[in-house]
Amino acid sequence: MRTDSPAWQDAHEDAAAARVYDPFSYQVHEDPYPVYAWMRQHAPVYRNTERDFWALSRHADVLAALRDPARFSSGNGISLEPTLWGPQSYKTSSFLAMDPPDHTAYRGLVRAAFTPRKVAALEPRIRERARARLAPLLDRPRFDFADDFAAELPNDVMCELIGIPAADWGQIRADNDQLNHHQDGSDDRTAAEVAAALRLASYYVGLVADLRRHPGGDLTSALTQARVDGVRLHDAQIVAFLFLLISAGNDSAGKLLGNAWYHGWRHPEAQLAGLNGRAGDWTAETLRFDSASQMMARTLTEDTVLHGTCMPAGARVALLPASANRDERVFPDPDRYDLGRDTSQMIAFGHGPHHCLGAALARLEIRVALEEIGTVASGYEIDMAGARRVHSPHQRGFAALPCTLTRRPRPRTLAE
């Protein structure tokens, strides 16, 4: 092929793009996995000089970093965005931007709400909410799975848990979605994102004030009575908790549910199995194959040599669990979507002290949602011409997934 031909130039540009990891790039958002594969093979300690960070992409390295908070600190937050990075990041990210022992103390205030027993007890209510969200969609010839269902269910569940009135759930979700959207290539907040953050902050301040006066059985009311070292939390600390719980709860479960739906469409055998009793396996393999959680940042507290490369103390390091879950050193044939795969070593929900507090809840929400759809649908199609991806440095998923269902035959009644 001539080096001045358009085809050669396109191939050269594609190859060059596969060697650049920029979490703020829309091109990376569309498909980060070729970039990850190149990094694991050629640059396991990757350096992005323009944005001033390093990145770890191999399973063993990501896992070791997550287990070592003393060296890979969360003290400056977990995002590379300038407005969210620094020693004040705990004000917006709560305990995610803390190291032990502070992290342990503040995480402990909400941990009881997410124990396996407490989460299991939520299943009937989650199933009820899933059916309520699904019912009106079944009368439509076509609906948006991502927007009308996948994003709504976890938002309903989390808003109810923290005491937000049902009438406000839609606005909370809309503002949270806007808050997590980024412009292509930009690590700065847009005016729309800032406005959404301010609306949410104002709402949460009012909610906390109301629940201090009239507490209920919700998580926010419990936080108004909580103490750390004998001192009650002030309003700003509780607001940070609410930002974290809503954002983490909505993004991970909602995006993962959409990813499962998408990959079920791409793999008809998985779709058939998933709709016919294997919703749990469908959930687990999607978590490994295409996790919603793509990246979290850390700060190095000491010079660290890895694979012959020295990362200096103070360096920003991006940990890439979504790449780790495609590491061929751990997962045979990692780019194959296989519901029968052993997923026990995946790290989609992190590891160590920062293991996702809501992991069990997210798994339950996704499994229940897929099971409920399986009771009424034997198959589906997605119109990819109308599909639209979320653009976030942290979360991977869809903002729109228009689809049509193939309904299961309605059981005949005795009267019939």
Short summary:
By secondary structure, this protein is an alpha+beta fold. The protein has a single domain, classed as Orthogonal Bundle (Cytochrome p450).
Please, could you describe this protein's structure?
By secondary structure, this protein is of the alpha+beta class. It has one domain (6-407): Cytochrome P450 (Cytochrome p450), CATH 1.10.630. Helices cover 48% and strands 12% of the residues. The protein has helices at 6-17, 26-30, 33-42, 59-66, 90-93, 102-111, 116-121, 123-134, 145-150, 152-162, 169-179, 191-213, 219-225, 235-266, 268-275, 279-289, 321-324, 359-376; strands spanning 45-48, 53-56, 72-73, 143-144, 227-228, 231-232, 296-300, 304-306, 309-311, 316-319, 377-382, 388-389, 398-400, 402-407. The strands form 5 sheets. Strands 1-2-10-7-3 form a 5-stranded mixed sheet, covered by helices on one side. Strands 4-14-11 form a 3-stranded antiparallel sheet. Strands 5-6 form a two-stranded antiparallel sheet. A hairpin with a 4-residue loop joins strand 1 and strand 2. The longest helix is centred in the middle third of the chain and has 32 residues, at 235-266. The chain is globular and about 65 Å long. The termini are far apart.
